[in-house]
Design goal:
The protein has helices spanning 41-72, 86-101, 143-153, 195-205, 209-224, 242-255, 277-290, 303-320, 323-339, 357-371, 380-393, 411-425, 432-444, 455-468, 471-487, 507-525, 527-530, and strands at residues 19-20, 31-32, 265-266, 272-273, 394-395, 401-402, 535-538, 541-544. It is mainly α and 552 residues long.
């Protein structure tokens, strides 16, 4: 590039070159001055601006120098000491935290092992009907699916307890994986609770529109019994055991696919179909408020009550995978069960005492619910000790009958023992002990009119028969199903009791009243889809799906 000319490069008169004009004047040669070039507008502007800039710059320098001179004439103020480095402050805080960690935590038993070897027995998947269109806990966007599902069962009906609304019945609910959290269902054995799966399993396992209608009525009544603080209260002699009553009341809602992630929807006529999102959420929050730091619950007088509450937390977590709300509390409740096992492998009414088969049954249900949940852990040694206890109370070479604290078998305790064997050892229909035990129950007490109404026995025995399957289940199911449907209060002129069952004739009725009896009756009618069986019959033969509970 050519160098731009500077102002000093502009030619002056002394730079002019003489040029002789051929024309002469008065006989003399005329000298003419010719400028080197004309001054441009840009050069003229520079001439005007640069002197002003120089003057302004000189003025600012003079002012700055004056301030410096004045500053040197006055003494400086004493400087304040610099604050300590942030790193030093953080170190002190961390030191205080470490000191706090040495203090005993209130509510924790310091005698418990702190490094107990706890591991899940296996990551397993149950072969269950795949349902992707209606995940558990998610909001149903297509009302037609639910309405068609209800209509297929003929179960849609007005609700006498809440006129103008419709009963929310299984088959129109929600099920699947995780809902708003977007997480997968934590327990795959609960897949049968999905709306589409429920309909399929009801029809294939022996349910009817009448049994589903009975469940719908029962859930409506159960919801009406919830207290303002989210709890339920036994109307029997054990009214103070609110952790157990709240836990057991939650289970029928969970079995029907109802979680704290569902929402209400309206039918084609604008009637609200009642969902139980707030009912379930209120019950869960109530349990969380009752839980102590060590995992136990206020309002729980014994291990019996604790286990029932633990089952509810584990099932709710298994259906929704809600880690933020449920995983920690559910695991703590299971830890309390494991720590509370007696020396002989059983559980007593109080932690770390020896107990009986009846109490063991609920602990095993809770442990099994936890073991099948992702992210939850169960100590194998606890299960091994429980197995040893069952051996000690088993009767016969095949261990087909079970007693209370010894091998004197009874129908009720045999049903508890066989369900435990199913979960602990994976006993299926071909196991001699299971086959003999089921036959013993069939010959001892079958459900039906004129029989003693003992829902504790029927709750356990129905599960054993269902998991055993086959001809004996079909026989049992018809008697049990129709008997319960007939015993339910269905007189709309009695809205206070509509949908419930009067207290039974035995332990459940005396201790838990109408509420406990209704819960157990509902769970028995929901048996078709509450848990996916470990086995299925295929082409007349028996096929093992997963030996989840078996020895490893």
């Amino acid at each position: 590039m050519s160098k731009r000319p500077k102002p000093d490069d502009v030619p002056t008169k002394t730079d002019a070159k003489p040029t002789a004009d051929p024309t002469k004047k008065d006989g003399k040669q005329v000298i003419m001055l010719v400028s080197g070039h004309e001054e441009t507008g840009q050069e003229r502007l520079l001439k005007k601006v640069i002197p002003a800039c120089v003057i302004s710059g000189a003025l600012h320098v003079a002012i700055a120098g004056t301030f410096l001179l004045l500053g040197s004439l006055f003494p400086k103020a004493d400087a304040k000491p610099a604050p300590p480095p942030p790193l030093a402050m953080e170190s002190e805080q961390e030191k205080e935290k470490m000191e706090d960690l040495t203090k005993l935590t209130e509510g924790l038993d310091t005698e418990l092992d702190t490094s107990i070897e706890v591991e899940r027995e296996a990551n397993v998947t149950i072969e269950a009907p795949k349902v992707t269109e209606d995940p558990i806990g998610s909001t149903l966007t297509d009302n037609k699916l639910a309405m068609d599902s209800l209509a297929a069962l003929g179960a849609l009906t007005d609700n006498p307890i809440n006129p103008g609304n419709l009963l929310d019945l299984p088959g129109g609910g929600i099920a699947g994986s995780g809902g708003a959290l977007g997480t997968a269902t934590s327990n795959p054995t609960l897949g049968g609770r999905s709306a589409a799966s429920r309909d399929r399993m009801v029809t294939s396992k022996g349910g009817t529109s009448g049994s589903q209608l009975a469940v719908g009525r029962g859930l409506a009544w159960l919801a009406s019994q919830q207290q303002p603080d989210g709890t339920w209260v036994w109307d029997g002699s054990h009214s103070k055991d609110i952790a157990a009553s709240t836990g057991l009341a939650l289970l029928p809602f969970l079995a029907a696919g109802q979680t704290h992630k569902v929402a209400d929807w309206k039918d084609d006529k604008g009637k609200t179909v009642i969902k139980y999102k707030q009912t379930v959420l209120g019950g869960l929050i109530a349990l969380l408020k009752l839980q102590k730091p060590d995992g136990s619950f206020r309002g729980s007088s014994n291990m019996y009550c604790h286990a029932i509450a633990a089952v509810a937390l584990c099932e709710a977590y298994g259906m929704t995978g809600d880690k933020s709300l449920l995983l920690g509390p559910a695991q703590r409740s299971i830890n309390y069960i494991m720590a509370g096992q007696g020396a002989d492998g059983s559980w007593g009414y109080q932690p770390r005492t020896n107990g009986d088969t009846s109490i063991v049954g609920w602990q095993i249900q809770a442990l099994q619910s936890a073991k099948l949940c992702k992210d939850m852990v169960v100590d194998k040694r606890v299960m091994e000790k429980a197995r040893s206890f069952l051996d000690s109370v088993a009767q016969g070479s095949n261990k087909a009958k079970y007693g209370y604290k010894g091998p004197q078998g009874t129908p009720t305790l045999t049903s508890v023992g066989l369900l435990c064997r199913y979960y602990l050892d994976g006993w299926g229909p071909n196991n001699p002990g299971m086959a003999d035990g089921v036959e013993y129950l069939r010959k001892s007490i079958m459900p039906g009119k004129g029989k003693k109404f003992d829902m504790y026995y029927y709750y356990y025995a129905s599960q054993v028969m269902h998991f055993h399957d086959g001809a004996i289940w079909k026989e049992w199911n018809v008697l049990m199903r129709d008997w319960l449907i007939g015993l339910q209060v269905t007189d709309a002129s009695k809205p206070r009791d509509f949908g419930s069952w009067a207290k039974d004739d035995n332990w459940m009725g005396n201790n838990t009243g109408r509420l406990g009896t209704t819960c157990m009756s509902l769970l028995t009618l929901e048996i078709y889809y509450r848990h996916t069986p470990l086995y299925k019959r295929d082409n007349g033969g028996l096929k093992e799906l997963e030996n989840i509970g078996g020895r490893q």
